User: What shape does this take?
Amino acid sequence: MKIMGKKWMYLVTLALIIALTFGLTGTAFGAQVVKVIKVYANGKLLNLTDVPIMHKDRVYVPVRAMSEILGKNVDWDSAAYAVRVTDKPDAATDAKVKELENTITQLKNQLAEKDMQYLILQAQYEALLEEGKTMSLKDMQKQLNKEYDEYRDVEFDITLSGKESDITVEIAVDLDDFEDEWDDLSDNNKTKYLQGIVDDLLEEYEDAEIEGYIYDSSTKSKPKLATFTVSSKGKVQLKSAASLSDLEDDLDDEYYDYFSGITLAVELDGDPDEIEYFVYVNLRTYDQKWRALSDSSVKKLMQYIYEDIEDEFDGAKISGYVIDSDSDDELAEYYFTSAGKERFYRYY
Assistant: This one.
């Protein structure tokens, strides 16, 4: 009986060893036996502290073992009664991440610096555009009138006309109110006053051609009191306006030999508002030559004299006549009607 019991125990132990060795599943005294699962990683058998098992056709891998396989950290959170799996720190990856973060920071700083440079350049660009803008003649006129509306007790009113490259300056003074003060101004005073205006104009409109005049605004004819031009160096060249007698001398010198073989004489009469000019020819001496002249040539002479007078006394009512100095007979007439119609008549 004892011999039979020992044999039985030996058989049971051998069966268990065989089952574990060959991975067979069976029971021993009613207990289930499970087979052990081997784990290979990339063909290499892993020696795990906690080995996986198969139970009821399912493979169970301990969390820690699986974490080690995947290169993860595993921790037990007793407070939460939970297993926490996290990535293991990778020195190479961390260094690369840090390098990238540093690069990103540098790029952000460079972008910020570029943005600042852009804003500065944009502000400079807009300032240059604003500075480069040319003031309109209308705005310049307002500015000049603020600065040059009075000089040595004489009040002036400045008007600009033309275009920015070719400017005409018209300066009005009312001699009814400021005749004495105007007469007290020397040519040097007038030149200094005009030079200030011209300098401001050339500062705004470089290389502009500038000319102008000062006139008496108290009369309808608005006679010119002085005219000026500007040299290539920007210097004012003043010319006092001629009186009727001065203009008469100039016209007589200009036109006394206008027709070949005929001597003429020019005289002026009237005032700055209404002027008559007379061209004298002696028909006793030049009758045949005079009559040989065409109407158009006589008209052209009278037109030229009219325009010269108008240049000095703009707005004046002007009429002209050709007179025979021997008989005082009227030989030709030239004028403009109130409607602006040109009229020329020649008498024989």
Observations:
- The chain has nine helices and 20 strands.
